[in-house]
């Protein structure tokens, strides 16, 4: 039995939910509320499972694993019914690079703990925090839009859903939540539209989770 | 012919240099100076190659690829003389998670462009910037030390060098450069010592690069 410890609004958990749905893997979702109780990710029991105090964590029998990209690759290699990468080595590398453009360059800078540090340790204003948030998304999406001009079909890479789409959709969700102007990214918007039609993506939307509030 | 566009002090480029050395891949290094000329990563010719304005970029014939983790995986799948991952799916996933703990949780927060934003846009003091830098390394290394207690042998995962070591060593280099107290991380220090004996790691050290200044 596979269990995913996550949080409705965590974009890293959102990525993994899409993967579980696409691969039709039976699983249980356990909510780790990142705000309630001072953040349940800091609870003694959760930190034993994940000393980084971060979601998600996947538990598969007696095997536990953190880091969304590592989890998605683990699921991809363990459940081969649907592949989340192209088979060609070069194409696979390009998909992985697109995923890292999102997961290593944009998301880490706008994560909850970083925003908390900016407010609590650096005492920056809400306007400065919004500018920070927008800055990294606009920088990242501007570069991504140029890359997608070379790789995209219906999705980030050609006409099959890949790990890149699993990283892009949660990042767009965050961008919209913080009112980033998305009108300048036509390719990103097209891919979002195409993914929004797929039931596996719909079921993974934060507002469709049991712990959404 | 393989060409790596990098910079002596870029830890993402440093990771790839180690991989190229371990796999004994003949290659050329081209320096993109991140400070000189206002940052050569912003030059028109480089941005055509890498619209993210970041190093490294690998060029293999007419194929170009960004993102150090994607590059390392591409090299690992293309040159199979030495493997940078364990063969077992679960072990491989754990190594990938360790690499992401470093490459997605620590490094992006302490990257040059982020430090520049903190100074130029948020006007924080040098002391605050040092505290920021130390904070993310100490958070990340504290969790990593606990994980290594379960996985480490001579290196991060057992007794073979993996991608996790390729990410760890450059991160330690940065930590020392910014005078982080490393005495509280005995396992990390042991692994650093063991890697420091390997010629492939020695040749990749920033100060041993032609563009070091």
TrEMBL record, chains A, B:
<dbReference type="InterPro" id="IPR034333">
    <property type="entry name" value="GST_Zeta_N"/>
</dbReference>
<dbReference type="GO" id="GO:0016034">
    <property type="term" value="F:maleylacetoacetate isomerase activity"/>
</dbReference>
<feature type="domain" description="GST N-terminal">
    <location>
        <begin position="1"/>
        <end position="83"/>
    </location>
</feature>
<dbReference type="InterPro" id="IPR010987">
    <property type="entry name" value="Glutathione-S-Trfase_C-like"/>
</dbReference>
<dbReference type="InterPro" id="IPR005955">
    <property type="entry name" value="GST_Zeta"/>
</dbReference>
<feature type="domain" description="GST C-terminal">
    <location>
        <begin position="88"/>
        <end position="213"/>
    </location>
</feature>
<keyword id="KW-0413">Isomerase</keyword>
<dbReference type="InterPro" id="IPR040079">
    <property type="entry name" value="Glutathione_S-Trfase"/>
</dbReference>
<dbReference type="InterPro" id="IPR034330">
    <property type="entry name" value="GST_Zeta_C"/>
</dbReference>
<dbReference type="Pfam" id="PF13417">
    <property type="entry name" value="GST_N_3"/>
</dbReference>
<dbReference type="InterPro" id="IPR036282">
    <property type="entry name" value="Glutathione-S-Trfase_C_sf"/>
</dbReference>
<dbReference type="InterPro" id="IPR036249">
    <property type="entry name" value="Thioredoxin-like_sf"/>
</dbReference>
<comment type="similarity">
    <text>Belongs to the GST superfamily. Zeta family.</text>
</comment>
<dbReference type="InterPro" id="IPR004045">
    <property type="entry name" value="Glutathione_S-Trfase_N"/>
</dbReference>
<protein>
    <submittedName>
        <fullName>Maleylacetoacetate isomerase</fullName>
        <ecNumber>5.2.1.2</ecNumber>
    </submittedName>
</protein>
